[in-house]
Fold this protein.
Amino acid sequence: MLKTFADIFKVPELQKRVLFTLGIIVAYRIGATIPIPGINAEAVKSLFAAQSNGLLGFLDMFSGGALNRMSVFSMGIMPYINASIIMSLMQGAHVIPYLDRLAKEGEQGRKKLTQITRYGTLILGAIQSFGLTMAISRMPTPSGMPMVIDPSVAWIIMTVATLVTGTVLIMWLGEQVTERGIGNGISLIIFAGIVERLPHAVASVLKLVQMDELSLIVALGLTILVIGVLLLVVWVETAQRRIPIHYAKRMIGRKMYGGQTSFLPIKVDQSGVIAVIFSISILSAPLTIAQFAPEWTVFGWPISKTITEWFNHGSAWYSVIYASLVIFFCYFYNSISFNPKDLAENMKKSGGFVPGIRPGEPTSAYIQKVLERVTLGGALFVAAIAVLPDHMRTLLSAPFFFGGTSLLIVVGVSLDTIGQIESHLIMRHYEGFMKEGRVKGRWFNVK
């Protein structure tokens, strides 16, 4: 594997892409440390210390610690994700015919859809940044100190403009990584923010062991548990259900074509980290409103308090809703990215067929049935990994953040990035990371 990493820098184009990606991540991490002017750092520190395992700590994880510092990147990439969700839902539900036409226009249509998503990000970013600005100017802190030194109108305008600019800049950085770097830029930015917490978490555990506040046996048990779950996630993320496809022999001119056998791979977790990120984005809306407007009531009924109790991170209602959203988005992503009818039609035109299944509509129905069964298993697994570790962390009193959400994102983004690097190496006749097979080509047949 060390030789493989050395080979990366032997390919000029790949070296340029890797260094460009690292440079963008460094720029993002620098931006996450620049605070908004007029913020009381001590008050912010006391607030996040009191709610490290609550909503603010959860949202701070996806901003890469920027929210904890109230930096120019405090909004993170959530407005862009929300805009992407809205665009995907409207395309999947065929709400606006114009979007359907753009989706069928190839590269030009994709560029127009991307531009519309950018405008949506700008609008949502302005709305959410205004809400965050008003919230931090009024939010009480455990220390009693105000979070804003002088919450004037000029400061509000300046802060809203700064937060929106930060979100747009993160969006642009992510797009640059996607086009000129390695992997999906948006996912890598979220990945960088999560991984940034890992050294601190390990250091905290070691410190507790040294102070005899955590026994060595418990620490080893937690480590084995984390490694076991990590291996299980990797196994599922690379698992596939392969449908055999045979191609009939055809005589074209004086040559015989066809007669080959290939496979149609269907991943167990087709959506990857998208379903998890989309679900978190949806859940953060009511929690944010409840957190930033604690005085809301209707006929004396404390709406914000009720929403906070229902959607509290780790509560039963939160787990049920979160798991349901993950399962929904797993199926929804497959419905817009995997079309069994088109696959069956293309197979029929090229002379391919599934053994024992008639070409055309029966093949489409068979692929759809297999897709639904495989997706169900993958969706249930992803939902369980996203929800159960939080409850296990509470029961075992784990002293560090062990969340299934972050685990799924880290594993999914890592596999995708390694797979793309490996593709560049193999294309230029270098060995991949694995001596036998490829990372993205490895498969586990699921019945």
Observations:
- Residues 178 and 332 are 23 Å apart (CA to CA).
- The chain is about 65% helix and 5% strand.
- The longest helix spans residues 361-396.
- The chain has two domains: 1-187, 197-447.
